[in-house]
Write a structure and sequence with these properties.
Elements (H helix, E strand, L loop, with lengths): L8 H11 L4 H10 L4 H9 L18 H13 L8 H5 L1 H7 L2 H13 L4 E5 L15 E5 L2 E12 L6 E7 L13 E7 H4 L4 E5 L8 E12 L3 E2 L5 H37 L1 E2 L2 E2 L4 H29 L5 H25 L11 H9 L8 H12 L7
Parallel strand pairs: 1-4
Antiparallel strand pairs: 2-3, 3-7, 4-5, 5-8, 6-7, 9-10
Helix pairs in contact: 1-4, 4-9, 6-9, 9-10, 9-11, 10-11, 11-12, 11-13
This protein binds flavin-adenine dinucleotide.
Amino acid sequence: MRQSKDDYQTLREAVRALCAQFPDAYFREIDQQRGYPEAFVSALTEAGWLAALIPEEYGGSGLGLTEASVIMEEINRCGGNSGACHGQMYNMGTLLRHGSERQKRDYLPRIASGELRLQSMAVTEPTTGSDTTRIKTRAVRRGDHYRVSGQKVWISRVQHSDLMILLARTTPLEQTSRRSEGMSLFLIDLREAVGRGLSVQPIANMVNHETNELFFDELEVPAENLIGEEGQGFRYLLDGLNAERALIAAECIGDGRWFIERVAEYGRERQVFGRPIAQNQGVQFPIARAHVNLEAASLMRFEACARFDARQSCGAEANMAKLLAADASWEAANVCLQFHGGFGFACEYDVERKFRETRLYQVAPISTNLILAYVAEHVLGLPRSF
Ligand SMILES: Cc1cc2nc3c(=O)[nH]c(=O)nc-3n(C[C@H](O)[C@H](O)[C@H](O)COP(=O)(O)OP(=O)(O)OC[C@H]3O[C@@H](n4cnc5c(N)ncnc54)[C@H](O)[C@@H]3O)c2cc1C
């Protein structure tokens, strides 16, 4: 039987209790300083929330994707931004599913405890963008190690990670029979790599999101850091994307709930023309519509998570949940900003900060158009468009 959101009240309350220690002013100040919410991420780690998806035998709490999604939703619903740390929750999935037993025993318990942060995944490149199979970063085997050269862009949380997963070509595209072949995943130890073949250039951006350009110049990577089989990296990457999409959908839903709660509260209190602004149908209908769309997105999120947890195929549901949730949170963001009038633009109301944060999800980690292309091709059987 499918779970509904009400089955997770205890979990929601526990996450909310932690988030209550980090009020709006904390995140506002971090945003204005362009800082990293270190105290918040440490508290989440110590409470074990970021290790939700790591099995108990490796030191995590072995929860399902459904529970993990509720954790992310609540963080964003409380006014925080899971984007600062969500990678720690799902990037390890690649190691868990495809790493060797030695890699899992070596890394997962330390990731679960927070001793090691695996918050980064380097896929996107400046010259190829969404066309991932054409990436140019190359890893060439030389005896007991690989040498990596190339460039990545928009790689998040590198400055707050010890480890990073890297997608690189190990067989040139022209030597493969299918373009999805010949790419491999590596575990990069950033503590050793930075300054010794890897340089990191931060990218100033619209959101307070720590993201970077990476330059690889003959970086030496031990062959034992290859994840799974050489040449299978793209397949492994796709395996992890459904979980990522469902979790991002949950973050959008959390954002959306924050926007609706704030605008409803403001609309009840703000008096103009002698009555609360939310008494006007022109104000309450857009809020109600945003709420309806958010609830629908949330159901699709639960459907995607339930299928993932039951080990059923969930590509269609995870993609649709991400699209619906990103659209619903963006609609709620616009409604919230609009009905705060001028105050929506004042930093002290936090609406403009959350507005910027939720806008990102129309583009990253996958853009809306690419999801529609997936649904068109893989769900509806329409001709491949690229
Ligand atoms: C803040 C931030 C953090 C990020 N973090 C990471 C990270 O940690 N790791 C990582 O690997 N990447 C990361 N990314 C990159 C992100 O995944 C990409 O920006 C996203 O996938 C879009 O790729 P692109 O920017 O190259 O856009 P492009 O591929 O250049 O596309 C530009 C626009 O054109 C549209 N478009 C392109 N081709 C088509 C088509 N065939 N049909 C219809 N529309 C099309 C796209 O939908 C998009 O809107 C991050 C990006 C941002 C902004």
